[in-house]
Amino acid sequence: MRPGDLVARKQAGQPILMLTAWDALSASLVEEAGGDVLLVGDSLAMVVLGHATTLPVTLAEMIGHTQAVARGLRRPLAQQPLLICDLPFLSYQCGSDQAVAAAGRVLKESAAAAVKLEGGEPETVAVVDRLVRSGIPVMGHLGLTPQSVHRLGYRRQARDPISQERLRRQALDLEAAGCCALVLEHVPADLAGSLRRQLAIPVIGIGAGDDCDGQVRVTADLLGLTPSQPPFSPPLLAGRQLCVEALRSWLHSAAPPQEGDPLQADGSPTRPAAPSAPHC
Q: Per residue in 78-122, pLDDT tens?
C-alpha cells in the first residue's frame, strides 16, 4: 500500500487498520496478522526504551527502529503494509527547513513511505504544506497529542463546543495542506464521525469511537505487554502475565536440582537437570 491508496480505501468504504511496531519481530507479527498500515510510533520511547513520555526519543532512534521494522517484513513490497514513521519531538517544531531535513532523513535512511506529526496550529500546518510540496507524504494527528503531554495531559480532548470547533478547523487546515490521512486520538465519537463525513481524507481513530474510516492501536497495548493500558485500548490477552509465567516455568525446570529438593518415588529429582550443553 502507498500513501495515496488511503483516500481510495476511504472512497471504497474499506476500513483502514493500523498497528504500531518497533522492531523486526513486532513488524512480522503485524504483517502476518494482516495490518494495512504499520506505524513506527514514538510510543516506542515508553514501550521499548523505558521513558515516562514520548518526548526523549531522538530522530536517530526513530530511524533506527524504522530500519529494524522494515527488516521484519517478508512479503513482496507491493503487498507489505504501508510503513509510516512518527517525527519525534522538536524534529519539526522549529521551522520548515528543519522539518524537511528530519523527514527527508526518515525517507532516505529507512523504508518509510510517509511521516506522521502532531498538532494543527498554523506553524504546524505550514510545516505540513512544506513537507508535502517537497514530496514527503504526511499523516496528521489531532486530539490527545502525547508530545504535548505537559500541556494537555492524557485526558480526553475537545470536550466542549469551543475546543471542538478549534479541532475541526485544524483538521480542515491539515487536509488543505495536503495530509494523506488524520489520526484523531481520545476525542468524542460524535466529533470524529462528523469529521469523517466532512473530510475527503481518511479519519483514523484511537479512542474516538467506531464511526471512523479506520482504527489504530499500540500493538503492545493490545497484546497486554505494557504495565497499564489506556481506557480506550483494553488488552486482548494477558500477554505480560503469560510471558512471565512461561519464563518462570522454564527457569524452574532448567535450574539444576539443589540439595534438599524433594525426590520422586524412584529417587530422581522432581526437576530435570539443566541441559548439559548450552545453546548460547
A: 899 999 999 999 999 999 999 999 999 999 999 999 999 999 999
276 is written with which cell numbers? Answer: 548439559
Residue pLDDT, tens place only, 32-71:
999 999 999 999 999 999 999 999 999 999 999 999 999 9
- Tell me which long-range contacts 188-192 makes (C-beta under 8 A, separation of at least 24): 188/156, 188/158, 188/159, 188/164, 191/158, 191/164, 191/167
Q: 31, 118, 175, 185: which one is catalytic?
A: 185
E strand intervals along 186-269: 203-206, 214-217
Convert the pLDDT of each residue in 151-202 to its tens digit.
999 999 999 999 999 999 999 999 999 999 999 999 999 999 999 999 999 9
Ramachandran quadrant class, 161 (left: phi over 0; alpha: psi -120 to 50; beta: rest): alpha
The answer to whether residues 205 and 216 touch, using CB atoms and an 8 Å cutoff, is yes
Whether 175 is catalytic is no
Its pTM stands at 0.90
Which cell numbers hold the place of 65? 527502529
Dihedral sign for Cα 68, 69, 74, 77, please. negative
Query: What cell numbers appear for 231 in the block?
Result: 481506557
Distance (Å, whole) CA 118 – CA 110: 21
Cβ 205 vs Cβ 184: under 8 Å: yes
